[in-house]
Write a structure and sequence with these properties.
With 385 residues, the chain is α+β, with helices and mostly antiparallel strands. The protein folds into two domains: 5-111, Glutamine synthetase, N-terminal domain (Ubiquitin-like (UB roll), Roll), CATH 3.10.20.70; 121-363, 2-Layer Sandwich (Creatine Kinase, Chain A, domain 2). Helices cover 27% and strands 22% of the residues. It has eleven helices and 13 strands. The chain has helices at residues 5-12, 48-51, 113-121, 174-187, 214-232, 260-263, 268-280, 282-289, 292-297, 325-330, 346-359, and strands at 19-27, 33-41, 61-64, 77-87, 95-102, 130-140, 191-196, 202-211, 236-238, 253-258, 312-314, 321-323, 335-337. Helix 3 (113-121) runs parallel beside helix 11 and helix 4 packs across helix 5. It starts with a helix and ends in a 26-residue tail after the last helix.
Length: 385
């Protein structure tokens, strides 16, 4: 693919006067990200950032939903409503706008999980749910499902040397991860870290801590920025849970969760209550955590639990839920839901987990399903260390 980065950089430095570019980003009909750009004129006399510092100043827009799987051609318009604003690292002085989608009558579109997530979070704002999302992904050769660094035939060395690695033979694509990291921080994304992952050309970034709906806004925009950065390096980003078949790790979207009472003294008892609730409705929740491909990842191998069975443990990365040793020692903190997939909808997952642990009082006293070690103070053989 032909790219002329030097020419592009020249055009990116041209002055725009009062013209400001806004790229509206939304979630399409298959959980994919879409975006298009418009010009707004700053006639306020203020700097661009001051005038457009609030998302409320931005107008609604629309798009052709028949091209995104969200409408039919005879009634194609889907509305966009701006919800979160970020600086645009690709067009200096411009902005990225996270939007959600609405039908022409003003009702939320069926694919708009953000709207319903807000309804749930607003029922108990005092819970102050904090989330941190660990986004795993692969970098692929363009137009393929072959990770960067894989040989033309066969496979590279088995897993082992790649995790948090250094060296050309162990890590391919680090410059893409590092470029994304800088771009995300510039944009205002709450990206808290990155690392090279277990499989070749597999990486991870972490978003959070974020409160409530903010996690979905920042994670979706981070995914968008990553894909835009990868365009400059002529590679694809793959968020599928099990893109490389065989004896290779899949990609998860581990979700770290705490509420206000979990973070306070003696918060561990509230964490264990939340674990118990999630265990009791595991069959319902596993379909929220991801699609059928996620069930292929959740095989019970490669640091996963089997999707059919709920388990938890202290420091257990092969369980559905892991409670960290520090949380155990300090008797407060957070827990990690490891069943969520790399391509999950964060609005849907964060809000449904919130609903279960904060709003579903009917789960208290409910009998746990078989093979679900819930309600225990600690799993077997898990001493405090």
């Amino acid at each position: 693919m032909y790219k002329n980065t030097e020419a592009a950089n020249h055009f990116m430095t041209l002055p725009l006067g009062r013209n400001v570019q806004f790229t509206y980003v939304w979630v399409g009909g298959n959980n994919e990200l879409r975006g298009k750009t418009r010009t707004l004129i700053n006639n306020s006399g203020y700097s661009n950032e001051n005038h457009f510092s609030s998302v409320e100043n931005l107008p609604d827009w629309d798009f052709d939903g028949s091209s995104t799987g969200q409408a039919v051609g005879s009634n194609s318009e889907v509305l966009l409503k701006p919800k979160a604003l970020f600086k645009n690292p690709f067009t200096p002085g411009g902005f990225l706008v996270m939007c959600d989608t609405y039908c022409p009558d003003g009702s939320p579109h069926p694919t708009n999980h953000r709207f319903h997530a807000m309804e749930l979070f607003n029922q108990k704002l005092e819970e102050e749910p904090w989330y941190g999302f660990e986004q795993e992904f692969f970098l692929m050769k363009p137009g393929t499902k072959t990770p960067l660094g894989f040989p033309e035939t066969g496979y590279p060395r088995p897993q082992g040397p790649y995790y948090c690695s250094v060296g050309t033979s162990n890590c391919v694509g680090r410059e893409i991860l590092d470029s994304f990291y800088r771009a995300a921080l510039y944009a205002g994304i709450k990206v808290s870290g990155t690392n090279v992952e277990v499989a070749p050309s597999q990486f991870e970034f972490q978003i959070g801590p974020c409160i409530g709906i903010e996690e979905g806004d920042h994670l979706f925009m981070a995914r968008y920025i990553l894909c835009r950065v990868a365009e400059h390096f002529n590679c694809d980003v793959n968020f599928e849970p099990k893109p490389v078949k065989g004896n290779w790790n899949g990609s998860g979207g581990h979700l770290n969760i705490s509420t206000l009472e979990m973070r306070e003294d003696n918060g561990l008892k509230h964490i264990l209550k939340a674990v118990e609730k999630l265990g009791k409705c595991h069959e319902e929740m596993v379909n929220v955590y991801g699609d059928e491909d996620n069930k292929e990842r959740l095989s019970g191998e490669h640091e996963t639990s089997d999707w059919r069975t709920f388990t938890w443990g202290y420091a257990d990365r092969g369980a559905t839920i892991r409670v960290g040793r520090m949380t155990q020692r300090e008797n407060k903190g957070y827990f990690e839901l490891r069943a969520t997939s790399s391509n999950c909808d964060p609005y849907l997952v964060t809000s449904k987990v919130f609903e279960v642990i904060c709003l579903r009082e009917d789960l208290v006293g409910m009998v746990a399903p078989p093979n679900s070690p819930v309600g225990m103070v600690a799993p077997p053989n898990s001493p405090v260390v």
